[in-house]
Amino acid sequence: MLARLREDVAAVLERDPAAKSSVEVLTCYAGLHAVWAHVGIHRLWEGGFHLTARLLSQFVRFMTGVEIHPGAELGRRVVIDHGMGVVIGETAEVGDDVHMYHGVTLGGNSPEPTKRHPTLGDGVVVGANATLIGDIEVRDEARVGAGSVLTKDVATGETWAGVPAVRVAGGEPEDSGKTGDDEADDADTGDVETVDDDSPAESIPGDETEVEADD
User: How far apart are CA 185 and CA 192, in angstroms?
Assistant: First the structure.
């Protein structure tokens, strides 16, 4: 446990420029307090002491503003920055080196006792007040923008944002319906216009290309 404390403190000092010392992190970072408490509470849950685990998790929620269900699985060096308002559901799985900000919800979308909460891979960053719903997977090194509502899987290294969230960076380009050869032909053909400051624009003759709009 001592090694884990050192890892977590080092992670905060590395990622948060507002953290000035190890003592400050140990005493003032409620998100870390919630994560540390969850380590023991999760063991109680796994041991079948469900009511005790739930009662303790509610006490931690009262003290830190962070609600982590005892059944949730958290990796190492998970940092909950600021902490207030974070909710992590029962079947959520959070990988190593995840960084999430205040107001994040890892919520469920099914009344059935099945896997119904998100899975976050290693190195994922989740912005403030983002809501991730359902049994979705956010893979390693992906990012979810602040205030987003995410209901779809996110591939490795992608960035998603918006309501509903869409991919805004990383990954493969969206399918435009054209092959690479088609796009190259579009770039090499067609009329090219030049604009002179003292005269109307004139077109330079080129290969005639008929362009049709997609429905």
Answer: 14
CATH of the domain at 25: 2.160.10.10
Q: What is the pLDDT of residues 11-41, one digit of tens each?
A: 999 999 999 999 999 999 999 999 999 999 9
Beta carbons of 127 and 114 less than 8 angstroms apart: no
Range with the poorest average pLDDT among 118-127, 159-168, 174-183:
174-183
* Distances 123 to 17, 72, 95, 153 between C-alpha atoms, Å: 18, 18, 7, 16
Counted domains in the chain = 1
Q: H-helix or E-strand containing 44?
A: helix 30-46
The helix or strand, by DSSP H or E, that contains position 50, with its residue range, turns out to be helix 50-64
Tell me, yes or no, whether 199 lies in a domain. Answer: no
Closest among 6, 3, 4, 43 to 22, alpha carbons compared: 6
**What is the residue whose two structure tokens read 């997977």?**
137
Domain assignment present for 181: no
39 in any annotated domain: yes
